[in-house]
Amino acid sequence: MLASTKTVDLFEVIANKENRVKRQQEWLKSHSLPLISFSINMPGPEKNNALTDVIFRQGMHAIRNTCASYGWTIVNRQIHRANTGAEAIMVVETDDVNALKIAMMRIEHTHAMGRLMDIDVLAVSGEIISRDNQGFGKRQCYICDDEAVVCARSQRHDLPTLLQKIEEIVNNA
Ligand SMILES: [Zn+2]
């Protein structure tokens, strides 16, 4: 079962998001290369547990392997372990930011735990590359296959249901 850890509140989430954006901007400026920003899609107030550890490790592994297979060097990376969940930013040497986005979306869509991963790609300009027009469609909810953002916004599924499903996905991966 899940070992209980510290929980997080909305203020921490907002503060963390602001810090993340600041770090991203600094790195874009200092490297002039695209960034990958990886975090875990974990509902509820508890953002770190045995499951998120597994998802994070697997995600880092998949991102590294994928970049290596395309010949894109990760020239710098930073792992940030906060109360709000583990995150990583990686600076990637590539001149094709759309190809990078597509490769990361492929992980989200094909990796056994991909639905639990959020892998954003930022262009040197700071623009977050959109999922649209990349041929993958909207992200689906892992409970009902409806559009994930719709279920999240309406809180269609209760937390125990979501956590049970996440445990199932990780254990079956
Ligand atoms: Zn749903």
UniProtKB/TrEMBL annotation:
Biological process, per Gene Ontology: prosthetic group biosynthetic process
Keyword annotations of the record: Lyase, Nucleotidyltransferase, Transferase
Chemical reaction(s) catalysed: apo-[citrate lyase ACP] + 2'-(5''-triphospho-alpha-D-ribosyl)-3'-dephospho-CoA = holo-[citrate lyase ACP] + diphosphate
Transferase found in the keyword field: yes
UniProt EC number: 2.7.7.61
GO molecular function terms listed in the Swiss-Prot or TrEMBL record: holo-citrate lyase synthase activity; lyase activity
Class of the enzyme per the UniProt entry, highest EC level: transferase
Name by which UniProt lists this protein: citrate lyase holo-[acyl-carrier protein] synthase
